[in-house]
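Title: Prediction job returns without error message
Component: structure pipeline
Severity: low
Priority: P3
Assignee: unassigned

Description:
Job completed but the reporter wants confirmation the result is attached to the right record. Sequence as submitted:
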Amino acid sequence: MTQKSTKIRALTEGAIMIAAATVLGYFRLFRFPFGGSIDLALVPILVYCLRWGPKYSLMCCFVNGVLQYFLGGGIAISWQSMLLDYVVAYMLVFLCGFGAGRKFGWLWGTILGSFGRWISLTLSGGLLWYMYMPETFLGMPMTDPWIYSMLLNGVLVAAVMAVDLAVLGIIQSVPELRKVILARQTAERQE
């Protein structure tokens, strides 16, 4: 595959995965009472990251974050909130791409991408959303907005990550699906 055809294929797959993520974002499996929800929207993005690695994944994750805000009914209290809660949070999912082509890359790549997302969401909560902190959360008294933000976003990201890992684990466990869906894409690969 030539360099030009590799880029075209990467962009095309990225557009398809972003479209799939946008559609899957409308079908929520669970909505948390304190904000956020569980859906399968990150699965196509994680698959793309695992197929193409971090180089191509960064742009795909950036575009996905912007579209999640504008098409997914994003809520923000300022432009900083929009950036940290959507653009940067989803962009950091590109870290999953470092697991591309590696043993158990789907597992630790997803954990790494989710951790990056959690960092951005925690920063947003501690810096911008602190005024909405309840007196208690998960049965514990809340006095520090950073602890609250870490816990709140930790619960949200961990739940989404568990669902994503379950789906990717199913894909990984079926050899035919693993070859087609999670196959690493490189410029050296011949068709």
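Comment from assignee: result matches the submitted record. Residues 42-71 form the longest helix (30 residues).
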